Backbone:
């Protein structure tokens, strides 16, 4: 099935057996000539070779970016927006191709890449094209003769390091606002999923002026570090985990540059008693909301990995919820009916299984799943894990650490106060879910949760124009909203006096 | 004496190899998403620890730290550092070799818990830095 898919794709675009870096609008071989093998998690087998870059390649990319940064920064917003829209159009014309490559690279079901990842990525370019056109500076009248003008100016050249769970969507979340704001970018994709973005470069690489968008692949320690530490970047953006996040802040402090960080969470999904008042559409939606922990194989920073269910409905709710989870169809990621595919890498799968072990060790009960899913045929060596429900209490490690797999830890609560205390008893504060038929309770509870996003009677929606980012150790900054333009811009203030009179001090 | 962190034979072999290649090493347990919950291995001195870190012990002669607030949730478990084939990202030194350090865990026995209670909390990163300064001075 994999070979067949690659053959089909090859008729539409050149599928390269070996991807160099994309620098200054050209394919550039890594200076040291090294490559690494990219495996598809679908089968655990190689699909292409990828540049294993080093500091020298990062410098080449920064040279290319610096060469064009003044020109791009001065390009009229209307023209920048037009090019962003052109990227969106090109992606839309090639939706199926891009979705298939993303599925091969990451292991997620084609259903999701076709319906969510790629359409959301496309919309992101259009959203920031629109934001840019509508952005205005400001004028402050200090007194009748003194005026402060505020201009938005690009930062210059920025570095971006992205994760492997939504490779193209995360790339577009970061690229669209940075490029819209007039910056040039050097991006380092995740080494688990380095291929789809290079295929995207083959599609959209000639739309922007050469050097505006540069992609350098390689390992974190060999390519990511020389980018994050570099004195020629004006900002670094990172999505990943807390230790690397701290390290990146330490590097940024050496250059006194800003950083935005998205570092994950342990998001609570809270089901109040009134959820089960009726067995209706809403109850069905809430059951789907519970099952959302399995979306993208649980490899989502906002995975609703802690479910809090009111004790009065617990048994009834869980009986239905377990059935719902057991009906999730696991299978070949390229099969359009598959709901859950492969974990992105072997070490992720091992980590997930080790967490299920520690959960059992701490006394958690496995309500369903809990094992590697050994699928047949070419998927035999792929990285598949059964959707898993663990029952326990909030002090267990499985309630406190991001497992990043299709595993939810469930506990009961008896009052709103207890629910809030459990919800906020975590180091993180990225996502959360509140399910109730009572609007006032939803409002008060949502405001009291220490998290950047409170999905209310819904979960896992990621529209552009709704700000996304974390409280507490979940990071700094807000993406998917026009406010992200500010994170990629300087403010220039011109303070102008129109008075001919001296101040009178000297 | 009870230890807070240990390493498997496979992990110890890898530590020896990495030390030959990169010099003295340092470990920090990560949290959060993507490659979170995995230990990160850096050249010693690259990552600055402070008041908000705790010193868990040594594996293969290399210091192992984690964030204090994270340790508070993890303190009832002993960490066992293993190594598996994989492609973990982050800036961890072993990743280019197609392997990844992995944290396995077990809950302490009652006897171990009593002993740890007597020992009190582990020293902070800042305390360890001060000790190193004093030893060097």
Residues:
């Amino acid at each position: 099935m994999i070979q067949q898919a690659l053959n089909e794709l090859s008729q539409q675009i050149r599928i390269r057996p070996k991807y160099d870096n994309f620098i200054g609008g050209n394919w550039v071989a890594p200076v040291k000539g090294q490559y690494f093998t990219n495996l598809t998690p679908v089968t655990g087998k190689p699909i292409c070779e990828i540049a294993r870059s080093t500091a020298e390649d990062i410098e080449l990319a920064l040279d290319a970016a610096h060469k064009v940064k003044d020109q791009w920064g001065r390009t009229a917003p209307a023209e920048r927006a037009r090019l962003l829209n052109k990227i969106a159009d090109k992606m839309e014309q090639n939706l199926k191709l891009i979705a298939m490559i993303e599925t091969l690279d990451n292991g997620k079901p084609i259903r999701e890449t076709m319906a969510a990842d790629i359409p959301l990525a496309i919309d992101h370019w259009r959203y920031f094209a629109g934001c840019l056109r509508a952005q205005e500076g400001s004028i402050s009248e200090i007194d009748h003769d003194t005026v402060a003008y505020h201009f938005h100016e690009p930062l210059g050249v920025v570095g971006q390091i992205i994760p492997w769970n939504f490779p193209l969507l995360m790339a577009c979340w970061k690229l669209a606002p940075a490029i819209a704001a007039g910056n040039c970018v050097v991006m380092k994709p995740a080494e688990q999923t380095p291929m789809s973005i290079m295929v995207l470069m083959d599609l959209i690489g000639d739309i922007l002026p050469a050097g505006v968008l540069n992609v350098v692949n390689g390992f974190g320690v060999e390519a990511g570090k020389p980018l994050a530490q570099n004195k020629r970047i004006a900002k670094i953006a990172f999505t990943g985990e807390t230790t690397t996040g701290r390290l990146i802040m330490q590097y940024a402090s050496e250059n006194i540059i800003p950083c935005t960080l998205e570092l994950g969470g342990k998001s609570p999904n809270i089901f109040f008693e009134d959820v089960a008042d009726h067995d209706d559409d809403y109850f069905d939606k809430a059951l789907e909301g519970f099952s959302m922990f399995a979306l993208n194989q649980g490899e989502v920073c906002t995975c609703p990995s802690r479910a809090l269910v009111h004790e009065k409905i617990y048994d009834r709710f869980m009986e239905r919820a377990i059935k719902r989870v057991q009906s999730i169809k696991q299978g070949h990621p390229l099969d359009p009916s598959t709901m859950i595919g492969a974990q992105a890498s072997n070490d992720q799968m091992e980590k997930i299984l080790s967490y299920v072990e520690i959960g059992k060790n701490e006394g958690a009960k496995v309500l369903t799943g809990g094992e590697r899913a050994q699928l047949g045929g070419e998927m035999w060596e792929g990285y598949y894990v059964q959707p898993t429900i663990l029952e326990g209490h909030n002090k267990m490690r499985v309630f406190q650490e991001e497992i990043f797999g299709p595993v939810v830890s469930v506990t009961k609560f008896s009052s709103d106060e207890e629910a809030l205390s459990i919800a906020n008893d975590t180091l993180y504060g990225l996502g959360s879910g509140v399910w109730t038929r009572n609007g006032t309770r939803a409002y008060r509870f949502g405001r009291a949760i220490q998290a950047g996003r409170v999905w209310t009677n819904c979960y896992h929606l990621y529209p552009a124009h709704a700000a996304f980012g974390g409280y507490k150790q979940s990071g700094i900054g807000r993406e998917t909203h026009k406010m992200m333009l500010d994170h990629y811009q300087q403010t220039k203030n011109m303070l102008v006096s129109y008075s001919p009179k001296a101040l009178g001090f000297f | 004496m009870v230890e807070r962190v240990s390493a498997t034979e496979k992990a110890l072999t890898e530590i020896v190899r990495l030390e030959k290649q990169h010099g003295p090493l340092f470990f920090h347990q990560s949290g959060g998403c993507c490659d979170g919950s995995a230990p990160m291995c850096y050249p010693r001195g690259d990552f600055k620890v402070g008041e908000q870190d705790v010193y868990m012990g040594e594996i293969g002669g290399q210091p192992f730290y984690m964030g204090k607030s994270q340790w508070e949730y993890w303190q009832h478990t002993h960490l066992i550092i293993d190594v598996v084939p994989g492609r973990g990202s982050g800036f961890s030194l072993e990743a280019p070799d197609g392997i990844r350090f992995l944290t396995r865990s077990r809950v302490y026995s009652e006897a171990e818990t009593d002993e740890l209670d007597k020992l009190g909390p582990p020293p902070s990163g800042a305390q360890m830095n001060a000790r190193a300064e004093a030893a060097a001075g």
The interface with chain A takes residues 28-38, 40, 42, 46-48, 67, 69-70, 73-74, 76-77, 84-93, 95-96, 100, 102-107 of chain B (CB under 8 Å). The first strand of chain B starts at residue 5 and ends at 7. The helical segments of chain B are 9-22, 68-74, 110-119, 125-136.
